[in-house]
Amino acid sequence: MSETRRSPMPLSETRSPMPLLFRRHSSGEIRNLASLSSSLLPAFGTVMGESSVRLKRFLIAPYDRRYRLWQAFLVVLVVYSAWSSPFELAFSKASTGALLPVDLVVDTFFAIDIILTFFVAYLDKSTYLLVEDHKKIAFRYLTHLWFPMDVASTLPFQAIYRVVTGKTSRAQVFGFLNLLRLWRLRRVSKFFSRLEKDTRFSYFWTRYFKLICVTLFAVHSAGCFYYWMATRYHNSESTWMGANIPGFKSRSVWLGYTYSMYWSIVTLSTVGYGDLHAVNIEEKIFTIFYMLFNIGLTAYLIGNMTNLIVHTAVRTFVMRDAINEILRYAKKNRLPEGLREQMLAHLTLKFKTAELQQEQVLEDLPKAIRSSILQQLFRTTLENSHLFKGVSDDFIVQLVSEIKAEYFPPKVDIVIQNEIPTDFYIIVSGAVDVVTYKNGMEQFLSKLGSQQMFGEIGVIFNIPQPFTVRTKRLSQVVRISHHHFKQLVQPLHEDGKIIHTNFIQHLKGLKKEELAEMPLVSEFLDDLISEEASMNEAGAQNQQENEISPTTSSLSKTPPTRVIIHGYQPDHKPKSGGNAGKLIHLPDSVENLLSIAESKFGRRGTTIVMADGSQVEDLAALREDDHLYIF
Asked: Transmembrane ranges (predicted)?
């Protein structure tokens, strides 16, 4: 195993973190990759192997499952600290009473976390390698602001004072020292940031819960500080609490807390009943700043909630705007009602099925993953279509990676008669009608359903599409490009023969009404029958020695080459008629070619030349769509 090094660190001190995403000595395997939204990434060029899977002894991976659970547990304790710190400042007797042992237990857990931090590996931001050297981990922690603040927010100053002096003190300074615990709130911020990126949780509700927590903390902190101002004023009767509850300092803690929360919420919501109001100048100044803070907090809350709500309706706004644009365009260009309805139906379906569109979902994935997904979805459909029955797995695998899936609403034309053939289609679900137009009248020919194909006749013969194909109901189809199909078939000769045989069988099974609309196909089938008869007559002796069926014979040969034959010399074109030529499959011998030409033109030739006058001596040298002149 080789390992890329970006700095002069020893190999044992740095490791690429990626293997630990899947197998770690400390916690086994990660079962849900959605939880790795904030995990570590390896540096470019880092070579990873099995020897980098395990961390050094007595080290913890920062994304270890059990360490993450420990961090989540500390977040719960942070919530308590966020409540107790302002509360103990306002109600000092609570800090030396029932809450003191709870504070000690909570501080103990955070002291344990300080010790654990010296054993947690970290990611070097310059190399993106996991640093495992204990000295470097300790040096990094001690030289940052985190360590002194973590220690200051964890030390139980009131308990230490009681142990040293043997006295219990409710001095004001201890209340402010307890506010250092609010440093722990950074854990909550990181926790919510990780939850917002975790796809297992709803972003809307995660963000909504975060906004509620921010609001409750602001209300709680302001209410406690406002009560503390009342308790510290030199004349308790000239305070907002003393004016309503004489002797409030000796009353219940929870009575004072209830009044404080009531004032804070009423002020935050700008209701202002007037029953609790500032009395002295200090309270009035605090109230002014609190209301200014509320303006910013309210704007923050409204802005976030608006974004969350609007985000869910963005697609609706886009759809309405697009529909209005379509209506304006149709009205301006005086499009017929039927065409306008097709445009609206297609646009509406596009937005309704946006999450099902394969291109949007798959475009950012690697090609191998896209191909695997498309095989899972459409392989059976391709294998059961008449053109691809019996082809090899290699052909299907290559073809399925090039298909495009689309949805069409009812009564929409997918293929239009006489348009240039660029694609053909296979129906995955739904149904379509095949229609043709005669003298301006529409005539129904057939109905196609799931796993049936259309458009392939125009593509293979390279002729304008002979029919119009219209959806009967909501249909999903896969589109295959003419260009990609030809590129794929050319090197796969055996699959080409199978496709050719399947296509001929399909043409022979078409209805008479459909063949009547395709003169070229009808002529091709007649020529094919004549060609087979000529070849059978010329090779009768070979057939007696080794009889094989026509289908087996076609499968044993290379795909037939199509050529165009003419019954005259290249420089002596007939003045009228008969100059279009005949499209045939190239036989295996010159004698058979002359026999086919005799059946087509009524006279037997002896010479075969190309358009440039060069004489043909070897049929194997001919290419697709060559023009041959026989005279």
From this structure: 73-92, 104-123, 208-229, 254-273, 285-303
pTM confidence score = 0.49
pLDDT category of residue 542 using cuts at 50, 70 and 90: low
**Residue-wise pLDDT tens digits, 437-469:** 887 788 898 999 998 999 998 888 888 888 999
Q: What is the pLDDT of residues 168-193, one digit of tens each?
A: 666 777 878 888 899 998 888 888 88
Across the range 31-46, mean pLDDT stands at 42
| Alpha carbons 406 and 358: distance in angstroms, whole number | 8
Token pair in block for residue 585: 């499959």
> Do 62 and 71 contact (CB within 8 A), yes or no?
no
Q: At what angle do helices 65-90 and 203-232 cross, to 10 degrees?
A: 30
- Rounded mean pLDDT of 279-298? 90
pLDDT in tens, 262-271: 999 988 887 7
User: What share of the chain has pLDDT > 70, as a percent?
Assistant: 81
Cα 503 to the chain's mean position, in Å? 37
CA distances from 306 to 27, 76, 311, 392, 421 (A): 41, 29, 8, 55, 49
- For residue 242, is pLDDT > 90? no
Question: Whose CA is closest to 425, among 379, 461, 391, 385?
Answer: 385
Give Cα separations from 508 to 443, 505, 529, 587 (angstroms): 22, 5, 11, 21
> What DSSP element (H or E) covers 177?
helix 172-178
How far is CA 386 from each of CA 31, 158, 435, 453, 482, rounded to the nearest angstrom?
43, 85, 20, 7, 17
As a three-state string, the secondary structure of 58-96 is: CCECCCCHHHHHHHHHHHHHHHHHHHHHHHHHHCHHHHC
Confidence at residue 357, expressed as pLDDT on a 0 to 100 scale: 52
pLDDT at 454: 92
Determine how β-strand 423-429 pairs with β-strand 475-481.
antiparallel
pLDDT for 113: 92
Burial class (CB in 10 A: 0-12, 13-18, 19+), 236: middle
Helices (H), 269-355: 281-332, 337-352
Whole-number Å distance between alpha carbons of 548 and 558: 16
pLDDT band at 426 (very low <50, low <70, confident <90, very high): very high
Helices (H), 333-366: 337-352, 358-362
Question: What count of residues does the chain have?
Answer: 631
User: Token digits for 546?
Assistant: 């080794």
What's the token pair of residue 340? 């306008």
Using an 8 Å Cβ cutoff, are 159 and 104 in contact? yes
In angstroms, how far is CA 75 from the centroid of its own chain? 32
The whole-angstrom separation of Cα 35 and Cα 478 is 35
Alpha carbon distance 344, 284 (integer Å) = 62
What is the C-alpha separation between 424 and 414, in angstroms, rounded? 10
461, 414, 462: which is closest to 434 by C-alpha?
414
Kindly report, residue by residue over 148-172, the tens digit of the pLDDT: 999 999 988 878 888 888 776 667 7
φ and ψ at residue 546, rounded to 5 degrees:
-145, 85
